[in-house]
């Protein structure tokens, strides 16, 4: 196997790994959000901004 081909293979594997990690992270966040009432974080951020004014 040539060096160029090896480099492309490594790049491809890293790319697929990054996509897999992104999907896993997305689903992990989705399940985590279900534990909290929807919009809790948004309300907390809005309240923080109001208190700074």
From TrEMBL:
Transmembrane segments: 7-28
Top-rank lineage group of the source organism: Bacteria
Keywords, ordered alphabetically: Membrane, Transmembrane, Transmembrane helix
UniProt name for this protein: Uncharacterized protein
Organism name: Candidatus Egerieimonas intestinavium
Lineage start: Bacteria, Bacillati, Bacillota, Clostridia, Lachnospirales
């Amino acid at each position: 196997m040539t060096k160029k081909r090896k480099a492309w293979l490594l790049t491809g594997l890293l790319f697929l790994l990054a996509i897999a990690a992104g999907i896993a992270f997305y689903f992990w966040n989705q399940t985590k959000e279900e534990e909290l009432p929807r919009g809790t974080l948004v309300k907390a951020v809005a309240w923080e901004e109001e208190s700074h004014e």
